[in-house]
Each structure stands twice: as structure tokens, then as C-alpha cells.
Amino acid sequence: MFAMSNEEKSASAWNFRSNPENTMAKSVSTLTLKKYKQEGKKIVCLTAYDYSTAKILDQAGVDLILVGDSLAMVALGHKTTHAVTMEDMIHHTKAVTRGVERALVVADLPFMSYQVDETHAISNAGRFIKEAQAQAVKLEGATELNLQVISRLVSMGIPVMGHLGFTPQSINVFGGTHVQGKSADDAIKLIEDSLALERAGVFSLVLEMVPHSVSKIISQKLQIPAIGIGAGDGCDGQILVTDDLLGKYTDFKPRFVRRYASLDEVCSEAIKNYASDVMTSKFPNAQESFFLSETEEKLFQDRLKAGSKN
Ligand code: KIV
To answer: Tell me, what's the pLDDT at 25?
Structure first.
């Protein structure tokens, strides 16, 4: 028998995960993700903001779907994540959870929904679980308040995902979109913050725009899975904004994004073809239209003629 290479093993594991017969029966939980880490299986994560996209990702076998506050830019056209509200996030999370049967759905707590005080943070996190049927929430940073909020939420039965490195809600403090943890001091602080989040009870941690060796050592030190975005291949899984990967959101393309499609071009071409068909009366054709029965058509024409005599 031939021995399988690592690439072949990963491909066959993915085929198994994305086959509806194997995947639909078993939904992904926070424990599944921990088990994947222990077994050395990479965790596949993406964002979604609507029902049809969430359904495609889920049926393709994506493990974790994040309703990210990147919604602000990608779906709502804002310049940063700041403007998105709890109401926006709840509305879109509801749409996503309706489309998902297997993946773990995580909802992002938006700017100022958890930074004010514990009670406010807890009631907002609870809304995602109760009203929108998300299975977990995510928040950015490892402040003292965040650590308290995380342990309270976990004790109440709400799993929390952490997010360190470049945390977009703090873009104004960072002075732009920059790699974090670039000095030895900052790298050590990132390790300490990651461990503090783990102790507080997060089930997983996003590391965004962090140097390779730093995210790799954090992933090795943590028992929980570290999910990278612009953090190299040493993490336990990867996440990207789906619209970046599909080439649908093109306002800017961070260096860490790999485009797997050019949906902007595909969509634009399709829309131009539609417009041309409308203008030349090629759309709609007979199959795309509805007709009266012969009898009703005759009666209808007779009525029109009779009417025109009056
Ligand atoms: O809001 C978002 O989409 C995110 C990720 C890409 C990690 O936080």
C-alpha cells in the first residue's frame, strides 16, 4: 500500500469534512475545535454576514463561521469597524444562523458593546445567543475588564473567542493597520495576553497581523486553538474575510489575503450580459414568462374587443 503525503492526508480529510453525508450529522462545537488541535488537524474559518453565503460555507465544510464586525466595511460600506451597531450585528447573525447546520457560529461584539462595563457586555453577549442563536461571541483585547467579562460569560454558558495582535476596533490607537508584536517586548506581551485570555476561559483565539515566530510560539503554548489571519502558517487554523477571498470586496486588499476567485469580474460580466439582453429584448424568453391557457386567452381577447366597442 502507498503511504499518503501530508498534503494528500489533508485533502482527504477535507473531502471527508465537506461531504454532506459525513458533515451534516455532526455539528462543530468548541470541543471539536480543541480536538482538532490535539489531532493536528487545521481549523478552517471564514466570515459570513448573510444566509446564502453562510449556507455555501457550511455545506463546503467550513468549521467556524464568524459574523465579523468587518460587516461594517464589507457589507455596509463604512471605512472602519466602529460604526456597526448591536442591532446591525444581531440582524446579520440571525440571517447567518438560519443558513448553518454544522459550523460553529461566532458573533463579533461590536465597538462599545463590551468596553463600558460588565453588565452591558454580558447583556449584549447574551443577545447574540438568545435572539440570534449564535453559539459563541468574540471580543478584542485582553484588558482587565475583558478578562472579567470572559470568565463571567463562560460561567454563564457563553463561549468566548479572543482576538489579539492587530485588533481593528483599536485602529486609531495603533495609528493605522500595522503588524503588532514586532519588538521583543511587544511579542512577550502578546504571549502573556494570550495566556491570560486562555486562563480567563476563551475557547479559541484569533491572532491578526502578528509575526510568524510569535504566533507560532503562542499556538504551541496554548491548549486552545489559535486561529491566524496574517499570522503565518504556525497557527492551528486560519480565518479570512470571505469577500476578500472571493474577490468581491475590492476597496483594499491586505497583503495576507489570497484571492481564490474574482467575483467582482464574474458579477460585472453577468450584469452587463443581463443589461444587454434586457435592452435587446432577449430577456425574458418564453420559458421565463407565464401565459394564459388557450381558452382564457381567447376569452380575454374577446373581452378586450367587446370593451373597445363601448
Ligand atoms: O471582523 C472580522 O471579520 C474579524 C476577522 C477577520 C478575524 O474579526
So the answer is: 44
